[in-house]
Amino acid sequence: MSTYSDASGAIMPLPKARRATGFGGVVPALAFVAIFFIAPVAVLLLRSVLEPVPGLGNYAQLIGSATYLKIFANTFIVSGLVTVISLLIGFPVAWALAIMPGRLTSVIFAILLLSMWTNLLARTYAWMVLLQRTGLINKMLIGMGLIDKPLALVNNLTGVTIGMTYIMLPFIILPLYGVIKKIDPSTLQAAALCGANRWQCLTRVLLPLAMPGMAAGALMVFVMSLGYFVTPSLLGGTANMMLAELIAQFVQSLVNWGMGGAAALVLLVVTLSLYAVQLRFVGNQNPGGR
Amino acid sequence: MKEPFLQIRGIRKEYGPVVAVHDVNLDVRRGEFLTFLGPSGSGKSTTLYILAGFETPTKGDITLEGKTLLATPSHKRNIGMVFQRYTLFPHLTVGENIAFPLKVRRKSKAEVDSKVKEMLRLVRLEGFEDRKPAQMSGGQQQRVALARALAYDPPVLLMDEPLSALDKKLREEIQHEIRRIHQQTEVTILYVTHDQEEALRLSDRIAVFSKGVIDQIGTGPELYANPRTRFVAEFIGDSDFISCDLLSSSDGQATISLGGGSVFNHIPVHGKGTSGTRAALMLRPERIRLSRAQAAGAGLAATVSDITFLGNNIHVSTETATGEALAVRLPFGHEAIAGLSRGDIVHLDFDPGAAHVFC
Amino acid sequence: MLLNFDRLGWWKYMLLTITVLTAAFLLLPIVFIAALSFGSSQWLIFPPPGWTFQWYSELFADPRWLESAWTSFKIAVIVTILSVLLGLVTSFGLVRGSFLFRDALKALFLTPMILPVVVLAVALYAFFLRIGLGGTLVGFVISHLVLALPFSILSISSALEGFDKSIEDAAVLCGASPLEAKIRVTLPAISHGLFSAAVFSFLTSWDEVVVAIFMSSPTLQTLPVKVWATLRQDLTPVVAAASTLLILLTIILMALVAVVRKVLKQ
């Protein structure tokens, strides 16, 4: 912006000194990002249509093979499950946080932030141990008499889903909390006065008002889950691969850059499309805001 | 002829198609308090920023004590400035703020310390050296800003509406301070404001800005008694305007006729007008004579539309036969007021020498 | 009424229960690992039969663990310095500049934050292989810098936007050159943004796994890679010890950030 308002509200152009630092400042970062981000990614994607021979052969292979399709399916299903479960748990928690008394809120927040910022490997490792056959979870379930034999909770997609939900929960709760906090309580009070009972208030007023926040959070979690590498690889075991690990395998183990690039492009396209959808339809809404 | 202190010549500033300053010419005398007065967008702030070095003019020059200023970057111009917004350095104490320009000039510690004390005494904030800006009120912050701007004895101090963020009472208090400091330090001050009362209270001379040019420069009384453009007449003090017919104009004096046939001679005239055209007659409300007597000589008939008591003045709103509104100000106890009420017909006239015609 | 905690009736207890359970769920693994790191069972039986410091001494005695930690630290420090410097210069351009595509450019700079890291990791891996920087410190630093820079730009831009430029102008009129004014007046005023940028950049690099997996070589490994490689083989409690130390680091840094931000903002 190159104008400001003076005391009487007129729009004044900013004096020249304020415009002098312009493009020069961003040049170093721009060059850096162009060379070490845009170029390498572009090259990778190009290789998907150039190796081993020019054409869409790699993509045909991806779509044609049952194995690869299963991996795509697994990835989408797990991501979808994680998103839904996170939403189901996250919404009540965000709601509670938005209206609870202050001291309890601070404690929960601290736990949320600690969980988010703690090393990913440490957290994933914890689940690897917890979900073992001889792990704590199984022990507790057997001890409580709910099951006879230990469940296979890890080295499969169940473990991945549990682990990913754990990781993603804060990413749903925090933005949702922000959205609910901004809703004017009088809106809900008005609904009650109009005669709506609690359930009706929830489904007809609160949920719709929180919907943009839920959609945004859900989209973010879904996209993140699609591309996640660490947790699915460790908790899923070698037989249950997800998309990110597939890309890694193409490149590291099989040194097949064409296929690796193709799978990466698929992931990238899906990611960017979902973001575009979000920008278009969800955007930055402030429902019933104060 | 004394060498001019600060000369502003032919300054023009364009922002693309927008011309913020058309042609500003000004001679500032050493030690005077000169105000740039005008509405927003009139070019007064832009001119000030050109002086400070934050803008470069499209055309024109500025010389200070004979040397051109435009080639010097802002930080070497040695000019002091107090901004509209509070611009104290938030991470430094009051004392460190004032010391800043001196430290930048590599002055010795002893010099810095003594100057800081002197400045704090000047703005009457002794003992505030270790406070942080966040702990001080708006008025106090601006006083520190003033102390900081004067710490390095600049030849010129620029002030860009420094009091507009303060409430009325505080504003008057600090206006008083500024005037006192001006007398004590004898620094040349260029002050920008849109508040004519503030300008009249503070300045030696006022330059009235309108649409990128200076309409008129003069002392308060000069501008009030002899405005040279309609804009200046309207901007400074209250004014009444009556449309009239210009009968003749020569040597700066005009003969006009008001509706109803009254003719007035020897009225100071401004602007070029040919006989037979319409013009505007300007009168100050307190220079209009109001009487109940009918048509005793040249003048104008009007109907009283409202009477307001304002303490030592009575404000009588009237309306002429042609529908123009004229306000008349009479001292309390004036003979014409007794028994005056809405709807009464009164006779208005004036001394030609106190009026002005604008073409 | 739904947004008033006391008026919810029995729903209040349901919400509270879900929240407390979720908080416990989030906290459980972290506490569990810390407890486990002191347990004497090699097979991570919980509750452990005894308590011991053995895993920690194994951790500190193993030169490969210490080396990887040192490598991580070196890289993180260099990345932090470069990220803050580059972020600072870029933020000035983005916040103060007025040129075409400025908003698009800001979005571009933030993109590495939202794209799947594996794509970036693989792309950079190929790129560095080609120019011979694979498995080198330089390669690591550059890759981590790409990931850390968006955080830096976000933090510093935000602080800079909240800073009134007139204050910097006042410094210039006081006699400071534009550069001097920025260093003496603006930088101290946005120091909380610089600090946030530093912490985020450090953590981004320190915790980074995916890119590191591809960048690493047998002679150059970061701590996360060592953990990853170890986990692929077995679940030794030494990893629990390492994890606990990492958790401790997070807690300390979080507390530090909270304290410093409060102090600097005054």
Automatic annotation (TrEMBL), chain A:
Q: Which Pfam families match?
A: BPD_transp_1 (PF00528)
**PANTHER family with a match to the protein in the record:** ABC TRANSPORTER PERMEASE PROTEIN (PTHR42929:SF5), INNER MEMBRANE ABC TRANSPORTER PERMEASE PROTEIN YDCU-RELATED-RELATED (PTHR42929)
Protein family according to the UniProt entry: Belongs to the binding-protein-dependent transport system permease family. CysTW subfamily.
Q: What is this protein called?
A: ABC transporter permease
Gene3D superfamilies assigned to the protein according to its UniProt record, in alphabetical order: MetI-like
Q: How does it sit in the membrane?
A: Multi-pass membrane protein
- Domain ABC transmembrane type-1, which positions? 72-278
- Got a GO cellular component term for this one? plasma membrane
The transmembrane segments are 20-46, 67-89, 159-180, 205-230, 250-277
Query: What keywords are assigned to this protein?
Result: Cell membrane, Membrane, Plasmid, Transmembrane, Transmembrane helix, Transport
| Major site of localization recorded for this protein | membrane
Location of this chain's protein in the cell: Cell membrane
Q: Which GO terms describe its biological process?
A: transmembrane transport
From TrEMBL, chain B:
UniProt keyword annotation of Chaperone present: no
Q: What is this protein called?
A: ABC transporter ATP-binding protein
What are its GO cellular component terms?
A: ATP-binding cassette (ABC) transporter complex
For biological process, the GO terms are:
putrescine transport
What residues does the ABC transporter domain cover? Answer: 6-236
Tell me the keywords, alphabetical order.
ATP-binding, Nucleotide-binding, Plasmid, Transport
**Family (UniProt):** Belongs to the ABC transporter superfamily.
Q: Which InterPro entries match?
A: AAA+_ATPase (IPR003593), ABC_SmlMolc_Importer (IPR050093), ABC_transporter-like_ATP-bd (IPR003439), ABC_transporter-like_CS (IPR017871), Mo/tungstate-bd_C_term_dom (IPR008995), P-loop_NTPase (IPR027417), Transp-assoc_OB_typ2 (IPR013611)
Pfam families found in the cross-reference section: ABC_tran, TOBE_2
A GO term, aspect molecular function: ATP hydrolysis activity
TrEMBL record, chain C:
Question: What name appears for this protein in its UniProt entry?
Answer: ABC transporter permease
| Domain ABC transmembrane type-1 span(s) in chain numbering | 69-257
UniProt keyword Cell inner membrane, yes or no: yes
Q: Which InterPro entries match?
A: MetI-like, MetI-like_sf
Q: Where does this protein come from, organism-wise?
A: Rhizobium leguminosarum bv. viciae
* Segments crossing the lipid bilayer: 12-38, 75-95, 107-128, 134-156, 194-215, 235-260
Against Pfam families, the record matches this protein to:
BPD_transp_1 (PF00528)
Where is it chiefly localized?
membrane
For biological process, the GO terms are: transmembrane transport
The keyword Cell inner membrane appears for this protein: yes
What membrane topology does this protein have? Multi-pass membrane protein
The entry's localization annotation reads: Cell inner membrane; Cell membrane
Q: Which CDD domains match?
A: TM_PBP2
What PROSITE patterns is this protein classified in?
ABC_TM1
Q: Which UniProt keywords apply?
A: Cell inner membrane, Cell membrane, Membrane, Plasmid, Transmembrane, Transmembrane helix, Transport
- Which SUPFAM superfamilies does the UniProt entry name for this protein? MetI-like
CC annotations in GO: plasma membrane
Fetch the Gene3D superfamilies from UniProt: MetI-like (1.10.3720.10)
PANTHER family documented for this protein: INNER MEMBRANE ABC TRANSPORTER PERMEASE PROTEIN YDCV
